[in-house]
Design a protein that fits this description.
By secondary structure, the protein is an alpha/beta fold. It is 37% helix and 24% strand.
Amino acid sequence: MKPTLLCSDLSKRFGDFTALDRLALRIEPGEIVALLGPNGAGKTTMMRLVMGLLVPSEGSAHVLGMDCQKDSVEVKRHVGYLPDQPAFFDYLRGRELLGFVGEMHGFSRREADERAIELIAEFGLADAAEEFAVNYSLGMKKKLAIAAALMHEPELLILDEPTNGLDPRASAELITLFRKLCAQGKTVLLSTHLLEMAERVAHRVAILDRGKLVASGPVEDLRAQLSAGGSLHDVYMRVTVPAGEAV
C-alpha cells in the first residue's frame, strides 16, 4: 500500500536561511500525525511544500504516489488544506463559500449546495449560513475553513493549527471528527502547540526544531526512549533548543 504522504530529504532555503532541512517523513492511511515544534521550526513551510505553494530547494514530497510539484493540481484533488490564517472573499456568505469550493472541485451546483448544507449543520453554522464569512468570529471562521477543507471528501487533511480560536467544546468535537475520518481510512496531518491535545489524539508525533526532524514516533515510544515516566511535554523540552541558544 502506498503511503498517504512521503517526504524524502525535503528541504527549503530562503537565501542563507534553511527553513526545512532534509525532512524524511512517511504517513500511512488512517493515521493522525501531529507536527510539533517551536515557532519558526518549519511546520508551516513543510505544509506549504506539500501543497505545492512553495518549491523545494532539495528533495521531494509525494501524496498517494503523486509528486507534489509535478502533479500539484491532481494532488489538490485529494488533499484538504487549512492554512494558518484562512482568508475569505468579502462578497460570499458562509453557505455560498462552501458551494463555491464544491463547484471548484467539480461538483454540480446541486451537489455542492447539498454538501454545503450538510457541513454547515455538522459544524453548527446554520444560524450564520447566510452571513458574510468575513464577518464571522475567529472560531466561526476556523469552523468554516475546516468545512471548506472537507468539502470534497479528501483522503488527506493538512491542518495548520486547526483548534486555534475554537472553544473547548468545538475542539473536542473536531477531535471526534478526526477519529471518525481516520476510522474511514483517511489521514490527518495537523500542526499544533497544544501538546496535551497531540498526546491525546495523535497516533504519532513528529517534532521539528530549527528545520530538522528531531523526534518522530508514537508518543509512548518517545516517552520510553527519551523521558521514561514523563509526558510528551518532557520529550518536547528535551529535544528542542530554547530560542537564542546555540545548537
